[in-house]
Design a protein that fits this description.
The structure is a single chain. The protein is mainly alpha-helical. The protein has 23 helices and no strands. The protein has helices at residues 8-44, 46-49, 56-72, 74-87, 90-108, 114-117, 120-137, 139-149, 156-164, 166-184, 187-200, 202-215, 220-227, 235-242, 244-253, 256-275, 280-308, 310-332, 337-355, 358-363, 371-401, 404-424, 427-430. The chain is globular, with a radius of gyration of 21 Å. The relative contact order is 0.15.
């Protein structure tokens, strides 16, 4: 039996989809590197250099508080960039978000410390962190929309997970950067000026990211909406008016994955060094090894989302997060490096199983013309509790109760919230239907209902 070669048009579309997915991955990796080096620096450096008058616990909470500030600003970025992403296109907003992140990160590397300019040091740190938050607030939805909307219909979960790979890849790069810096210089030199190199290097990464993003084409689905004259004048207003339930479900569902990601990448560095007494390089190497497995698990979960359904795959991941929350810390608290690695691979497996199908799951809740706004608002609202506040809450809970069980309860509760949100969502909520006003003779705005195995 002969096998016909793929049609030229299909082959070209496949190459475009692959190029866009790869570009989304590289761009989000650069942005998450920028975001995560701040988190690592907040636990290792900022407490002493920007909040020297505080006690050890208060200084740690203050530095992690500046980390959380970036998440508070993310809904603003999500709303503004979501509006223009639905009005003028996804690609332009990705360029803007990358520039905001890169410039703010580079400037953080230039801020004088408290000993030099006093209270202006933490003030400038907070302002630039706010800029980072606005930039990354519009990044996630734009990157996943470019990947999902250009993907083959039956591979939206797989292609959509490529921007998600930027999370563990950004963690990996940030840990390697600090490992390199702490390995080649003394602790005094690193604290005094060495940490700045990780931030200043963002200026080089931003050039690479921009060159890649400027070369990709606009989302195919958005171009069809624009050509059909269906672009909304006020997409942010319309998405709240027409898809408020989807925003609620999308926000609650999106809490767990980032919460796990930031607890692992930010809180565990502090917990491992301060509570377990492990050397900082040891904790960073642990995260490097975990991040490698994390990337592989994310790809597998993207494939699973297409094979078994977005909802089923996501639900399984959230359940794993609930069940693994306590065994995770039982293993971590042994202080054994091997068991810590196993513990963190287990919890990042939960993150991966949710995060792989999450882009396709969330974006398909909204019609194309409102999708950037809906996805941005859902993800950024969730990131406040699920991202920036999670390490802060974990630190405060452990300080209050003196046991890791309190942090386990936090993780389990967050994962249970996302699990219940998806289980309660009907198919009508999970899949957008375009209005009848769209011409039925055109395939421009057909519903994106290809996942029949939910």
């Amino acid at each position: 039996m002969s096998i016909s070669p793929p049609a030229p048009g299909n082959a070209a579309a496949g190459r475009k989809a692959g190029t866009v997915a790869l570009a989304s991955y590289i761009g989000t990796t650069v942005e998450w590197y920028d975001f995560f080096i701040y988190g690592v620096a907040a636990t290792l450096v900022f407490r002493t250099e920007f909040f020297p008058g505080f006690s050890d616990l208060a200084g740690t909470l203050a530095s992690l508080g500046t980390f959380a500030v970036g998440f508070i600003a993310r809904p603003l970025g999500g709303v503004v960039m979501g509006h223009f992403g639905d009005r003028v296109g996804r690609k332009s907003m990705l360029v803007v978000s990358l520039l905001m992140m890169g410039i703010a990160t580079t400037l953080i590397g230039l801020i004088p410390t408290y000993d030099t300019i006093g209270a202006w040091a933490p003030i400038l740190l907070i302002v630039l962190r706010l800029v980072q938050g606005v930039g990354v607030g519009g990044e996630w939805a734009g990157a996943v929309l470019m990947a999902v909307e250009n993907a083959p219909p039956k591979r939206r979960s797989l292609y959509g997970c490529f921007p998600q790979l930027g999370l563990p890849s950004g963690i990996l790069l940030s840990q390697l950067a600090f490992l390199l810096l702490t390995g080649v210089m003394s602790a005094e030199s690193f604290t005094a000026w060495g940490w700045r190199i990780a931030f200043l290097s963002s200026s080089l990464l931003i050039v690479v990211g921009l060159l890649i993003r400027l070369r990709i084409e606009e989302s195919a689905d958005f171009e069809k909406v624009r050509d059909a004259g269906q672009v909304e004048k006020l997409p942010v207003v319309e998405v709240f008016r027409r898809s408020s339930l989807q925003i609620l479900v999308g926000s609650l569902a999106s809490i767990a994955a980032p919460a796990i990601g930031y607890i692992v990448s930010v809180y565990m560095v502090s917990y491992g060094t301060k509570t377990l007494g492990l050397p900082t390089p040891t904790m960073l190497w642990i995260l490097v090894s975990v991040s490698g497995a994390w990337i592989v698990m994310m790809l597998v979960s993207g494939l699973a989302g297409d094979r078994f359904g977005r909802k089923a795959t996501f639900t399984f991941g959230a359940a794993v997060g609930v069940l693994w929350a306590f065994p995770m810390f039982w293993l971590v608290d042994t202080g054994s490096i091997a068991l810590i690695v196993i513990a963190l691979i287990g919890i990042t497996a939960a993150n991966s199983i949710m995060a792989g199908p999450q882009p396709a799951l969330i974006t398909e809740m909204f019609p194309i013309r409102l999708r950037y706004s809906g996805a941005s608002i859902s993800y950024t609202f969730a990131s406040i509790l699920g991202g920036g506040v999670a390490p802060l809450l974990a630190t405060a809970l452990f300080a209050e109760y003196g046991t890791s069980a309190a942090v386990s309860v936090l993780i389990a509760a967050i994962c249970l919230t996302s699990l219940c949100a998806i289980l309660a969502a009907s198919r009508k909520v999970l899949y957008a239907e375009e209005p009848a006003a769209v011409p039925t003779t055109s395939r421009t705005l057909r519903p994106l209902v290809d996942d029949t195995t939910t």
